[in-house]
Design brief:
The structure holds 2 protein chains of 2 kinds. By secondary structure, chain A is of the alpha/beta class. Chain A has 9 helices and 10 strands. Chain A is globular. In chain B, α1 crosses α5 and α2 packs parallel to α5. The chains are: A alpha/beta, B mainly alpha.
Chain lengths: 251, 274
């Protein structure tokens, strides 16, 4: 039996900002159709790592392979081609506040597909349904939505071009427990209904263990432990033990 | 061995650290200035490189033409009218002393077309449109909307900056024409209706002395200032960081830099054109 090559492969990734060495040799693989959660404390370099996956940052050293193609040496136009394989959900949702929900979700379609308006309306409605939102909100502006709804609109926009990979930047940060549960379910549903490969960065232990097929723990700029959630639960790595203890100790 | 400070090389020199700090702050200021000039210039090249590449977002471009140009027309016309009026009033008062009222028309016309019109029009655009551009782009930057554009494989420079900068480049010269017209109308009203200078003298002398090169100088300056102030506003907003405070600081810096650059470039372009 031959196993499929990983969709995302990070090899010996180093990144510094001035004297601050953020990534010190990260190695990572994400299998097709799986959800990987990159767990780590504040300032551990999770967002920096995520930005490397989509080419928003260039590493000092190392490689980032997307479906076997190294994106580090690519120029702006080639990167744009690779980025169409991605959807990204931002911590703050990053919806365009001057546009309605419909305009936000249809934005990637308008930019990359030449579609007639009824077809665009159908696709937007379809994606809003995937994230459990009613088409009635299409004419509302982001400022009129709750935090959880904004996140879901953000996901609808991220998946409207049907990307292979969806990246989530701290999707549950700052949300109440009920909305957090909604967002967790949204990530699980996106994977189940669309079969996407997901990478989630988070410091929310409960959410991570709920949505992840695999969890990678980032500490001091390297992945110190990686595996299924239950394997990490029994890890003896002192920093990971301490990190998990803060939640499992209380629950 | 530790040398006591009173015996060391700094003995007898009062406050050398202040001097170091002064030199350091001047040096840092200069470095920042050079970095900003380099950044704005480099952004300018990027904008023109992206401007010639498809896709051409005509709707965005017209929206910015409307915002920068049409939206500024009234305020520029108002500024022009009052500038022309006050300039004609002051000139008539001064020229009457040596019986030279007939030169009020050409004096006002040359000053308005060459200097007042491009400088005041671009200052108005800076205050009204460039400040809004800088704040909007800065807010988009700190709320990750610009990163979102990039992740959706859309160039933020092409999508956001190209229409704004082109609108500045094209619409400020149009506003210069509006200012010229309003300014000369205001001047005519004061000179002829209030100061009693004959309409024929005002018009004939203006036609006699005002050259088309005066008018084109104003248009060229308008294009240069329009390009520069929108580039500065876009540069500062595009590179804003640090939340609401950072956006506020970026807008303040953009306003100061844009206003100063108008006056500095006014001198440089004026010298080059003559």
């Amino acid at each position: 039996m031959t196993s499929k090559p990983p969709v995302i492969q990070v090899v010996d990734l180093h990144k510094s900002f001035g004297d601050n060495q953020v990534l010190r040799g990260v190695n990572l693989e994400v299998e097709e159709g799986s959800t990987l959660v990159i767990l780590g404390g504040s300032g551990s370099g999770k967002t920096v790592l995520l930005k490397h996956l989509i080419g928003l940052l260039k590493p000092d050293r190392g490689r980032v392979l997307i479906e076997g193609e190294d994106i580090v040496p690519l120029g702006a136009e080639e990167l744009a081609r690779v980025r169409t394989k991605f959807g990204m959900v931002f911590q703050s949702a990053a919806l365009f506040d001057s546009m309605t929900v419909y305009e936000n979700v249809s934005f990637p379609l308008r930019e990359h597909r030449k579609l007639k308006d009824p077809e665009m309306r159908r696709l937007v409605g379809e994606k809003l349904a995937v994230v459990d939102l009613s088409p009635n909100i299409e004419d509302e502006y982001p400022a009129q939505l709750s935090g959880g709804m904004r996140k879901r609109v953000g996901l609808a926009r991220a998946i409207v071009l049907e990307p292979k990979i969806v990246l989530y930047d701290e999707p549950t940060t700052g949300l109440d427990p009920i909305t957090t549960a909604y967002v967790d379910q949204m990530i699980i549903d996106a994977k189940r209904k669309l079969g996407v490969t997901s990478v989630v960065i988070s410091h929310d232990i409960a959410s991570s263990f709920k949505v992840a097929d695999n969890v990678a723990f980032l500490s001091d700029g390297v992945i110190v432990e990686k595996g299924p959630p239950q394997k990490l639960r029994s890890s003896q790595h002192p920093k990971l033990k301490l990190f998990l203890e803060t939640w499992f100790g209380k629950n | 061995m530790q040398i006591p400070e009173e015996l060391g090389p700094r003995a007898g020199r009062p406050g050398p650290n202040y001097l170091n700090a002064l030199i350091e702050s001047i040096g840092l200021g200069l470095i920042r200035l050079i970095a900003d000039i380099g950044g704005v210039t480099s952004l300018g090249f990027s904008v023109f490189r992206w401007a010639v590449r498809p896709p051409y977002r005509v709707q965005n471009f017209f929206a910015q033409l409307d915002f920068v140009g049409v939206g500024s027309t009234f305020i520029v016309a108002l500024t022009g009218t009052f500038s022309g009026m006050v300039f004609a009033y002051q000139t008539a008062g001064a020229f009457r002393i040596f019986n030279a009222e007939s030169l009020v028309g050409p004096t006002v016309a040359i000053t308005i077309t060459r200097e007042l019109s491009p400088v005041f029009s671009s200052l108005m655009v800076t205050m009204r449109a460039v400040s809004a551009m800088c704040t909007e782009l800065g807010t988009m930057r700190v709320t990750e909307q610009i990163d979102a554009l990039e992740t959706m494989a859309v160039s933020p420079i092409q999508y956001l900056l190209v229409p704004r900068v082109l609108a500045g480049l094209l619409m400020v010269p149009v506003l210069v024409v509006v200012f010229d017209t309003a300014g000369m109308s205001g001047a005519y009203f004061i000179a002829v209706a209030i100061q009693g200078i004959s309409a024929g003298t005002f018009i004939n002398r203006t036609q006699q002395w005002l050259a088309s090169s005066d008018f084109s100088e104003g248009l060229i300056k308008g294009a240069v200032f329009g390009l520069t102030v929108t580039l500065i506003g876009c540069y500062k907003g595009f590179n804003a960081s640090g939340g609401a405070k950072g956006v506020g600081q970026a807008t303040t810096q953009a306003m100061v830099a844009a206003a100063l650059s108008i006056f500095i470039l006014d001198y440089i372009v004026g010298v080059i054109l003559h």
